[in-house]
Amino acid sequence: MSSTGSTYGDIHRYEPPRESTAAAIAIVLLTIIEIVFVGLFAYGLASGWAAGPAGEPANMFLGTILGLIFIDLAFILALYRKEFLPDVMIVKKRRRKWEDLYVREEDAEGNDLGGDVVEQFKRAVYPYYKR
User: Which H or E run includes 12?
Assistant: First the structure.
């Protein structure tokens, strides 16, 4: 679905999410695996696996589990974003090609050194400051 509105903030295109059952089941299974990894990591950390004399292999094991936790979380978030969030494109304010982020047409020749310091500070901190 798309609209013909061209004012700033109008929704230009809206595609509803697919919300597939297979993705929901996959997210639930990945969440269960995530809980198992977090529990295993917490147990290994609390029981002091890495504190013994042979601590280096245990450190590598705990590091691997921590990496798997974040990889699993990335898959969960990617599936959720792809399957359950709508695809929305909004109309944004176009900027001319010559415009730089901080330079406006009236400031192309430079500014007065002592003129309106508060206004210049606002524009330096927030470049898209509205007049």
Answer: strand 11-15
Give the helix, strand, coil percentages of the chain, each rounded to 5: 55, 10, 40
**Three-state SS for 97?**
coil
Q: Which residues contact 102 (CB under 8 A, 6 or more apart)?
A: 123, 124, 127
Q: What is the pTM of this model?
A: 0.59
Q: Is 13 helix (H, G, I), strand (E, B) or coil?
A: strand
1-39 in b/e form (b: 16+ CB < 10 A) is eeeeeeeeeeeeeeeeeeeeeebeeebeebeeebeebee
The model's pLDDT over 64-122, given as tens digits with 9 standing for 90+, comes to 999 999 999 999 999 999 999 888 777 766 665 555 555 566 665 665 666 677 776 77
Type of residue at 100: D
